[in-house]
């Protein structure tokens, strides 16, 4: 077996166009992924097929062309812009005599580079171990055979069996640690739910500008770069929304077409923030020609993580890159904001975004005009001021207090319950 390279800085990129629907990938996106991983592309090998072949994924002739390109360019790694089976990877590695990885392995490598927090590193390691566990065969052929005799008796298992056992043990350990992280996050969510603080989660295709928008709104200083998966570790910050109060804004990892299932499973604790959000801000790169396909890819991932039913507000970002695009709010048939056009980089349209957030999050707000008798006016007036819900107040000649209030429906229900529904008698409008 050939020696495996620890890193692959010089790569041959392979991209095959398939005539079957749903089997294609974007070459330019793959080149951005390779660049984000810090790899230099020496040559791009392209081709067309109807369906992939079991042995090499590509045909025999194309596989030999890839091997010749590796030798000619002295490449260290071959990167396929597709998902390969373990057998296909093994066969291609034997032919090319260098390491071969697929799209999933490339994304996992980028995630491993980006992870900064303890939780993020655990999630990436879990996804990597699950991916590697199916690709152990023939990695230790020189230790494969069990032997007997003096000095050769061992534990009774092959190196492959030992590796699998160690992988299973490590996966169990990581799952226990992530379960503890998940419980801690759940406690935070329960506390926010008790305080009835709305949560807004930023979602969208990778490199759509989520972190730039997050920094523009919160001044959080989150790392921003013009590359895929610049953000990996989630960040939560408080923001103030007019007529709503405090809300929590969460910046999450970007999605991509055919996001590896191992990653979705590993980031379950993080993606829970998206599942249980009050509102999703779907950030879209409006300057991308294929933004509609990217939106569909995000919708598929949201459905996969059971967040497809969460209310969402579309944010068309990067309008500064479009000719004649103006900041505006698009509304649905009910008059609610459906889409906001902004530029997070230039700060254009951010006021419209907050206006849309106010309208979308204040749906549970109620407004009443009360006529409070003199014997109750002082006590209720103090309560309303504590809740910060008084819009206008005026005393009448008979000592009664006319007060306009606006507050969340939950606060009104609690107040009603505490006062045994006595407030209903004072409602004028």
Automatic annotation (TrEMBL):
Cofactors demanded by this protein: Mg(2+)
Secretion signal span: none
UniProt record similarity statement: Belongs to the TRAFAC class OBG-HflX-like GTPase superfamily. HflX GTPase family.
Binding locations of GTP: 204-211, 229-233, 251-254, 317-320
UniProt keyword annotation of Protein biosynthesis present: no
Subcellular location: Cytoplasm
Binding site for Mg(2+): 211, 231
GO cellular component: cytoplasm
A GO molecular function held by the record: GTPase activity
Keyword presence, Amino-acid biosynthesis: no
Lineage, broadest ranks: Bacteria, Pseudomonadati, Pseudomonadota, Gammaproteobacteria, Vibrionales
Pfam families named among the record's database cross-references: GTP-bdg_M, GTP-bdg_N, HflX_C, MMR_HSR1
Top-rank lineage group of the source organism: Bacteria
Name listed for the protein in its UniProt record: GTPase HflX
Principal location class: cytoplasm
